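Risk register update: the risk that structure generation would not scale has been downgraded. Supporting records follow, first protein first.
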Amino acid sequence: MSNPTPTDSRVVSRRTLPLLIAALALASALVVALGWQLHQARENQRWLAQRATQPYIGMYVPRIAMTSLDGTSRTLGQPERDYQVLYFFTTGCPHCRASAPLVKAIAAQLDAASEGRAEMLGVALDPAAAAGAYAREHGFAFPVIATQDRRSAMLFRARNVPLLLVIGRDGRVRYARVGAINTKEGVNGVLTAVRRKEASAAGPTTKES
């Protein structure tokens, strides 16, 4: 058998070079595609984790019967009128304490902004005695509910406080804010949400799945 001549080697190289380039391009494309899929999988996991732990617009909330500190029966998640504004807090939370002045401002402007179509309830994740003393200290003029039922709180995604939720008659969240309420943006967000007219006064119309 004769050895290939230099001319034959050059011919083989010319033929295999495009194949090698194509193979490298394909391998690079596969690496990029796999990297993108991994990135998307991580983003989906992050999104699912946020949905499970953080409140979001359009989220359904349950209806939970409770009693406020004044002895009145209340139902979280079921507005008596068009909207229910829920303010979740704890008495030992520094961000809640810093938010108290603007929470009071929201409560003071709520009736005018909603034309009487919204109610506000405070939900203290503390014993009743501590919640009552805190409400008096800060001059809360809205009803306050005290509960240590963390499971019920988590159904409203009250994992972190302070938390403000605006809930419509259909049980869906119209506005959500987690964290300190220390700017006018937080006040305006709530007031803008309750200014919207609900579609019907006949009550919620939801599909059971």
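Supporting record for the second protein:
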Amino acid sequence: MPWTSAAFTVGAFGMIGLPVTAGFVAKWMLGRGALESEHPWVVGVLIASSLLNAMYFLPAVYRMWFRDPADQDGFPATAGDGSAAGSETSTAGPEDSSATPSEDGTPVASDSSTATSGGSTGAQPGATVVMREPASLLVPTVITAAASVFVGLAASLEFAPLQIARQVAEGVLG
């Protein structure tokens, strides 16, 4: 699920408040407003929020991108037979022939029910099966991640969402 993982990573970076995401722009504007209104303690809350978000999201991002899927040292939880229960990868068995090799030779399950239902996938025993995400999960996730990066990059444009919100606030609050 590389596209879903990439979108989750962008979302996590936005929650942490890293630059080029809407989360950074939001925290920056809140921090500026807090300092202008002489409430510097809010900046401390924003920093604490970023640190807590980093502690929560970065281990998951690390596991998605830098850990071997075959490494099952307690994460994710394993089923009684040693296979990954409800995870996006599993160990293939010889009984079923529903997995097909991808371009790089890695077996790919034809549907998401194959590996998560405890069934075997038909690839070589011990091979890692990469699950494909359904479009109903992928499309909204990727659109949201792209919008977060767009809003972060376009924050200084004349007709950016931030500028429109500023004009509305000035019109309402006068």
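The helical segments are 2-16, 22-36, 41-66, 113-116, 135-153, 161-173. On this basis the risk owner (M.S.) recommends closing the item.
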